[in-house]
Predict the 3D structure of the following.
Amino acid sequence: MLIILAVVVYFIQPVYTWFAADDFCLMAKIQAEGLIRNMFHDYMNWDGRSISLTYPVCRIGLYAGLPWLGPFLGSLLMMAMAVLLLRIVDSKFNFGWTGIFRTITLTVLLWLVFFNFLSQTLFWTTGVGYNMDIVLLLLALFWIKQWKGSTRDFVLGLPIFFYAGTCSPNGVLALLFLLFVQWMHELYIQKIRSNPKYLYAVSFIFVALFLVIFSPGNKNRMSSWDWKNLTHIWTIYFNFKLLLKNLFNYNSLFIWPLIAIGFMGGLMKGFANNSVNKGWFKQLFNGIYLHRFFLAAVIGFFFFLPLPGLNSPRTAIQFAIFATLYGLSNLAVIVNYFGEKKNQLLHNVALLVNFIFIITAMSQAFDARYVKNQMAQRHSKLKSLQGQNVVLTEQDFVRTPATRRFEDLSSDSAYWLNRCVAEHYHLKSIKMVDTRPKKVVMGVITD
């Protein structure tokens, strides 16, 4: 019953969403050009990733003018992530009742793990594409694992690996690292000499990555970058304090127990394998293999670290998913130490995860319902003021729950978001000002 309630609460969430930020800038253009023409236009002028499957997913809601459609697709994609994670860590996974319960529990766990950036990856139409990125990366890992060398594996593997290569570069870099480590582990530890799947996968990933990085759009985009941001790149990369600050700011509390489980389970496996793998090289490489998912998470996070314009909470989703995979892949080693009580332990943990999700998600949905009503009133107001210079006051301010946090209008009518909203509602200009009187507290003027 708790899981049924969790599913209902989970799929209620997209209803309480609204268009925000970049949505207003893109909507009219996408509706005028259509999805395919818009993807081609962006590839030539703005972003090489527009050839990816992520673009239709994050823009179909804008094309249809339905704010709930993108988040709904993103919610389905998060459930697909859960299925792929379970298939990667458990080859015996099936879709019986137990499999369904595990999928739902892992889905809501991912919701909690992604909590700090749900506003940018799930409840924001333009950001939903990051969920598709994760599905494609996990699908590539799953396809490599189940590879038998059949014609089906080669035929279906081509689009899987190609589209995995069109994802965010930090995620693709992490994926390539994982494939390389697994390839070398099979070659030197498991002594599997003839296996073309890795060469096949890497080839198509690199073809896609080349098309993305060297697209005309990326060339235009990079020409506007301030490359001075990279002046102290090595200082940034080896600034341990900065790294930890970003990791803790971007990730929710639920990621750290998963990392701890992965670390402890990896150590246990390592101690067990050291007696089998003789020689320091084999032991070192086996250690890298056991902790490969965590290393992939860090690699993906490091990629954007020195680029303030790109390093944002939504790019941390790659860190979160690989860290989650790290914990799940080593979970069995920890759980097995509880012997006959392990099933009861997993059952209780699942109950706790679903209960925390229901309480948290319901509170977020309750707040989001209130804000959506406020945004609907603002929408009606702006539609009635076409052709005017509009000034919104504190009556139009909205407070947002953590999962729906978004950038609102500023007091500068020339600000990019203000201009996009003005164009969307056919206004001359729009700005938001706070007309409330200021209070003097201890000689300091504050709000």
In short: The chain has a mean pLDDT of 87. The first helix runs from residue 2 to 12. Residues 2-362 form one domain. The radius of gyration is 24 Å.
